[in-house]
Design a protein that fits this description.
Layout: H1 3-9, E1 18-23, E2 26-32, H2 33-39, E3 46-48, E4 53-55, H3 62-79, E5 89-93, E6 99-104, H4 108-111, E7 115-125, E8 130-137, E9 148-149, E10 152-155, H5 162-174, H6 178-181, E11 185-195, E12 200-211, E13 225-232, H7 233-242, H8 248-260, H9 271-277
Parallel strand pairs: 7-12
Antiparallel strand pairs: 1-2, 3-4, 5-6, 7-8, 7-10, 8-9, 8-13, 11-12
Helix pairs in contact: 1-8, 7-8
Length: 289
């Protein structure tokens, strides 16, 4: 097994069977046609044709959009067309980072909207090698129960800055004090085009490293993680190559860590492909020509 296989698992999207969601002459989402057919039941919110989806032209301001979207999502829940909401507001943004409207995180993959997350690699330097703190996700999670995870990982909700969300996630997932969390260094941003049973996932992951002392042990406070282990980096590398053990996007964050810390051979035939596979463009631009 190889790192390229892990990268390709998160870049498995093909546009067949999807329709673009357009707003203000920008493609902001890609929706499965089957889900688009369901959206046609909500003409107060959405306008549909064979070529695209957009919001009803009478909904002009961000506040109006938020109100209609929230009411529509609630109606979808009541009809059983969407199983649940996460009560996490996510911003839907344009190409210049302007917020067009806010929607519950649970609807984001159905609509193919761009999503943002923050992942923190917690590592310890020992005499023999670097060691990484690896979490095991709780078995009662809706998403990837029981799989391995980065020390801290979470989505970036509406209304919080990167720094504010970093502090929040480090506290919730690792019991980390604010002054320690702020020592995490932003090191890269990963992009990928995944497909799930819900739809298209064009995700951006802000990646951080934090070097920790041997005295620190992460403690989960929000029920997301059932245990942490401090593992030699060589063992983590083997687990990533093996496949099927980590939450899929965590593999990409770790491969990026391996590359940045000089643990991958630049002479290896896959090295350049790995670098390119961690920073792929999204499909949106192909629908705006």
């Amino acid at each position: 097994m190889s790192y390229i296989e892990r990268i390709n698992e998160c870049n498995n999207f093909a546009s067949e069977g999807f329709i673009p969601f357009m707003l203000e002459n920008q493609c902001i989402g890609l929706v499965r046609r089957t889900f688009a057919d369901m959206l046609s039941n909500y003409p107060r919110a959405f306008q549909l044709s064979d070529e695209l989806i957009t919001l009803d032209s009478s909904i002009e301001t961000v506040e109006q959009r938020n109100k209609v979207i929230a009411e529509t999502v609630q109606e979808m829940i009541e009809r059983g067309e969407v199983a649940y909401v996460l009560d996490e507001p996510y911003p839907v943004k344009g190409h210049n980072n302007e917020v067009f409207f806010v929607i519950d995180r649970a609807l984001v993959p159905f609509m193919g909207f761009r999503s943002y997350g923050q992942h923190i690699n917690g590592f310890v330097r020992k005499a023999d090698s670097i060691h990484l703190w690896i979490g095991t996700r709780a078995r009662d999670r809706r998403i990837f129960p029981g799989l391995l995870d980065n020390m801290v990982a979470g989505g970036l909700p509406h209304g919080l800055s990167l720094q504010q969300n970093l502090v929040k996630e480090c506290h919730e997932e690792a019991g980390m004090r604010e002054e320690l969390a702020l020592q995490a260094r932003p090191v890269s941003a990963i992009t990928y085009n995944a497909i799930s049973e819900k739809g298209y996932k064009p995700d951006t992951l802000y990646c951080y490293d934090i070097e920790l002392s041997e005295e620190f042990t992460p403690v989960n406070t929000d029920g997301e993680v059932e245990k942490f282990e401090l593992l030699p980096v060589a063992e983590v590398m083997n687990k990533v190559r093996q496949g099927g053990l980590f939450k899929p996007n965590c593999n990409l964050v770790l491969i990026d860590f391996f590359a940045r810390h000089g643990l991958l051979d630049a002479q290896d035939s896959e090295f350049l492909e790995i670098q390119q596979g961690l920073h792929v463009p999204f499909w949106y631009s192909r629908f705006e020509q």
